[in-house]
Write a structure and sequence with these properties.
single chain, about 325 residues, alpha/beta, 10 helices
Length: about 325
């Protein structure tokens, strides 16, 4: 039975975390009666809370609750029949010392002459604006039925109490269940909408790819292929022939005709001027090297002959 209850509490805290954003360490508001009962049952309050909530906890106590501890009635050792609602001074001091180890939650009620009740103090801390929401994500640990009934009326407030030395967590209230179901429906609609959008985008991509493939096929079909010429890199280049003016034949271009006419006019002018004209120059013939040597030898022989004749005379 204990294992089944523990599994239920774990699932319940997971639902609180997914729906209302609860996270560790959990902030637990503890009232004075809860601390007194756990002390009477010899229970470790912090360990019991961590075991019930399945996570680390941050126990918190308000200023009004702390003042309630100081106002607890005490019995003296001389009393013959002490009341059940009273405790010894040593027990009271032990409770006060334990409460001081918890984090103090300021409720700003310390200026009042008398501390507020647990319900009024918790209401000002958990839901100060009366919006019926648990903005700061508090968990209420109280032994008062009135406080737990108030906690069930606020959305997203887990409630814990002790019954016969067993720590119990109440199931999720009707308001909290409505919020959880609404969140789940919203996620479901969002998932369906996202999946529909994803399928539509995928279908559009497929259609576009199919149209593109079809256009490429049509372009390949319409393409006309002509005769292929030889590879210009493998063709041998044609040699350019140089033609002289004598072999050029008749002159067809106007530029060639003008040059030929100018050459004829200059030739006629030179012939008309005669050989004595200064404008006419005789073309000098180039002598070969062998002829020039023979002429030099002949001139040298003539000089020797003239010298011999002069000696003989």
């Amino acid at each position: 039975m204990r294992g089944k209850r523990s599994k239920q509490y774990r699932k319940l805290m997971q639902q609180y975390g997914l729906t209302f954003g609860f996270r560790e360490p959990y902030q637990v508001l503890i009232d004075a009666q809860m601390l007194q009962d756990t002390s009477r049952f010899k229970m470790d309050l912090v360990t019991g809370l961590e075991r019930t909530l399945h996570g680390q906890v941050k126990p918190m106590i308000t200023q009004c609750t702390m003042r309630h501890f100081y106002l607890l009635p005490t019995s003296t050792p001389t009393d013959a029949t002490p009341s059940t609602s009273t405790m010894t001074m040593s027990s009271k001091n032990a409770l006060i010392d334990l409460a001081r180890t918890f984090e103090r939650r300021r409720c700003d009620h310390h200026t009042l002459d008398e501390p507020l009740s647990t319900l009024a103090c918790f209401t000002s801390v958990v839901d100060p604006k009366g919006s019926r929401t648990n903005k700061n994500r508090y968990i209420v640990a109280s032994q008062e039925e009135e406080v737990r009934r108030w906690a069930r009326g606020i959305k997203g407030v887990p409630s814990v109490y002790v019954k016969r030395s067993v720590m119990v967590m109440e199931p999720m209230s009707e308001g909290s269940l409505g919020v959880r179901e609404g969140a789940e429906r919203g996620k479901l609609r969002g998932g369906i909408r996202k999946s529909g959008e994803h399928e539509e985008k995928k279908r559009k991509r497929v259609e576009e790819s199919e149209d593109q493939v079809q256009d490429e096929k049509e372009a390949k079909k319409k393409r006309t292929r002509g005769l292929k010429g030889p590879n210009p890199l493998s063709v041998k280049k044609a040699k350019k022939e140089i033609i002289s003016e004598e072999k050029a034949g008749p002159i067809n271009s106007s530029h060639g005709i003008e040059k030929a006419a100018a050459r004829d006019i200059s030739a006629e002018g030179s012939m008309a001027a005669g050989p004595d004209s200064t404008s006419y120059k005789k073309k000098r013939k180039r002598k070969h090297k062998s002829g020039a040597l023979a002429q030099e030898n002949d001139s040298a022989v003539d000089v020797d002959h003239v010298q011999e004749e002069s000696i003989s005379t």
